[in-house]
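Re: that backbone. Tokens:
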């Protein structure tokens, strides 16, 4: 990928002496340069807007007062600090963009990385850090500052050469160059990138995505828009499109690069540790999970791949993908004609109506398919596990594939990736499959869940749809707003059907996992039971609403997880007298309570209503209200 082309988007700046707005044709037209503010928006005091700054300027024009005396304290102090740096102009996102003008807002978002990179000085204001803080100490307020966790501040910390960090009282805490080691520990961004001794674009797409994995944004679209500069792409901003923005971002990345680390995310099967032959189960006919598709749903998916690198050197595409490849060859050096897989090539992919047209080296093992991504992580080459898509109505001449296999021993029993050894000339999985035959092939891989199916599997319906019970409707209800809140707070809820028996034919496992605190993963098993159920005269035993419900909750590793479908009717049935189930982990922090309440009219007063609302609490706090601090201190 290349740097951003020169753009002519105008920029509005505040004068540091009077806080008056002025428009410049481009950042390069600002004689003497400008400062730029990086901050987190105040949650208690409303940030001043463009319209308010204009209004203050108009009033002061009549009164003869200095507008800077009437702006917010944050804006006034930022102007004063910029003046101390000898700069006459400053850009502040809250008041230098007319957000009422959608075209101007879109241009500003597309240009923002460049604006930060062009600034003489970036002033990073940390409102939650006291002036006497020691940033380098292990428990410093600097390390816990909100600034490190916000999505937009990722590019604001990387793009400018000079970043000065200021505390709540506007005292200087240090510079980016002073604190580069601490910043690397906090953010995972390599020190070389922060100090500009290595260009961010020399790092793989997966690595750059991983830098954003722990960051939060208010609007779902901004997850994508805040990464455009860092990934060297531009695209229209469409607020209201939701998570589709991140999908469009990945499509734009595919147009710009052959870096296949874009697909290196999700659960990994380490074939050096797990027996590959024993691990691979029958490939599922149907998987309701976004990890079954090629493109990620969030930067959080890349959190474990901050060291995934793309093997071919894209700057010299004819070089081999072997050790020493980054050493420049003399112009007269003899370059081998063939690569490790026959023809000399790098991966290619493009969007089509059939999904992503995907040209990669491919391994065929019996009925299994593995695409060699030409990516390395921890010294191991990565393969993408593929299975043929069961979607109906496809072109038989263009079979489509989905991603992932169910694997014993993999995280959550499911893997997208597998290790292939450390030698591209001798790829292998496990001990049995050695000397693998690898050939370049063109495949079509489903990039995301089809729109129709995604609509059918809206959050409130996912748990029901995963089971496809035509006779017996799912007797539990999970509110869509709760799932939405869980997602925004970093939680993932996955429904897994599990085999029952004649007396308990309808169990399902709900897995709750937080993207950061994976050790807190817990499971809720809910199901039905026909043993000892009294029904009205003539009512069939399997009629919806006339079976008992039961529930269990446990953490990974608990004894209850060994036999998830087996329940005790005396202790696990949900009854009017027993609507709450509780479990505790081994650390006193992991405490989960699952409670039920009736929803809708009862089919029979002697029985529970046919639909039951599931509510979850953890550590005594509603799960939907959990934040990182609660997780650490509950």
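Recovered sequence:
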């Amino acid at each position: 990928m290349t740097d951003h082309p020169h753009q002519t988007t105008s920029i509005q700046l505040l004068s540091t002496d009077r806080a008056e707005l002025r428009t410049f044709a481009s950042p390069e037209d600002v004689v003497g340069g400008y400062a730029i503010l990086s901050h987190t928006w105040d949650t208690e005091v409303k940030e001043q807007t463009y319209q308010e700054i204009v209004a203050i300027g108009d009033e002061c024009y009549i009164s003869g007062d200095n507008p800077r005396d009437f702006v917010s304290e944050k804006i006034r102090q930022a102007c004063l600090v910029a003046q101390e740096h000898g700069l006459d102009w400053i850009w502040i996102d809250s008041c230098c963009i007319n957000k009422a003008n959608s075209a101007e807002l879109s241009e500003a978002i597309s240009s923002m990385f460049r604006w930060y990179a062009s600034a003489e000085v970036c002033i990073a204001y940390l409102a939650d850090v006291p002036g006497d803080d020691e940033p380098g100490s292990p428990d410093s307020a600097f390390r816990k500052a909100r600034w490190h966790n916000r999505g937009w501040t990722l590019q604001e910390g990387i793009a400018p050469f000079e970043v000065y960090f200021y505390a709540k009282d506007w005292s200087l805490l240090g510079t980016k160059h002073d604190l580069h080691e601490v910043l690397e520990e906090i953010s995972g961004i390599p020190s070389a990138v922060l100090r500009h001794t290595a260009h961010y674009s020399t790092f793989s797409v997966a690595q750059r995505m991983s830098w954003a994995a722990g960051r939060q944004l208010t609007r779902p679209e901004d997850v994508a828009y805040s990464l455009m500069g860092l990934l060297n792409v531009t695209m229209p901003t469409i607020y209201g499109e939701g998570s589709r923005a991140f999908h469009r971002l990945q499509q734009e990345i595919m147009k710009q690069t052959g870096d296949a680390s874009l697909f290196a995310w999700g659960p990994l099967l380490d074939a050096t540790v797990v027996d590959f032959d024993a691990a691979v189960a029958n490939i599922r006919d149907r998987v309701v999970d976004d990890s079954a598709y090629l493109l990620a749903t969030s930067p959080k998916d890349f959190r474990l791949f901050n060291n995934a690198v793309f093997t071919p050197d894209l700057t010299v595409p004819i070089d081999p993908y072997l050790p020493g490849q980054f050493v420049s060859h003399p112009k007269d050096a003899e370059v081998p004609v063939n690569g490790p897989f026959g023809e000399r090539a790098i991966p290619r992919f493009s969007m089509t109506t059939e999904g992503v047209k995907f040209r990669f080296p491919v391994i065929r093992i019996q009925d299994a398919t593995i695409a060699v991504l030409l990516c390395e992580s921890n010294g191991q080459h990565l393969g993408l596990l593929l299975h043929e898509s069961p979607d109906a109505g496809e072109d038989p001449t263009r079979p489509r594939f989905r991603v992932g296999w169910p694997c014993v021993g993999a995280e959550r029993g499911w893997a997208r990736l597998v290790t292939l050894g450390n030698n591209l000339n001798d790829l292998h999985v496990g001990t049995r499959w050695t000397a693998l035959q690898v050939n370049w092939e063109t495949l079509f891989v489903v990039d995301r869940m089809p729109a129709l199916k995604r609509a059918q599997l809206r959050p409130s319906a996912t748990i029901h749809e995963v089971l496809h019970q035509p006779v017996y409707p799912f007797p539990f209800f999970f509110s869509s707003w709760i799932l939405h809140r869980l997602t925004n707070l970093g939680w993932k809820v996955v429904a897994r059907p599990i085999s029952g028996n004649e007396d308990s034919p309808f169990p399902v496992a709900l897995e709750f996992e937080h993207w950061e605190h994976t050790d807190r993963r817990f499971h809720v098993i809910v199901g039905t039971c026909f043993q000892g159920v009294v029904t009205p005269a003539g009512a069939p035993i399997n009629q919806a609403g006339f079976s008992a419900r039961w529930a269990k909750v446990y953490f990974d590793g608990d004894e209850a997880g060994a036999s998830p479908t087996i329940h005790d009717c005396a202790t696990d049935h949900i009854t009017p007298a027993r609507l709450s189930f509780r479990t505790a982990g081994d650390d006193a922090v992991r405490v989960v309570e699952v409670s039920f309440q009736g929803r809708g009219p009862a089919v029979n007063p002697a029985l529970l209503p046919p639909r039951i609302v599931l509510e979850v609490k953890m550590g005594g706090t509603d799960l939907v209200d959990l934040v990182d601090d609660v997780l650490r201190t509950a």
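Residues 259-316+345-451 form one domain. The CA atoms of residues 207 and 223 lie 16 Å apart.
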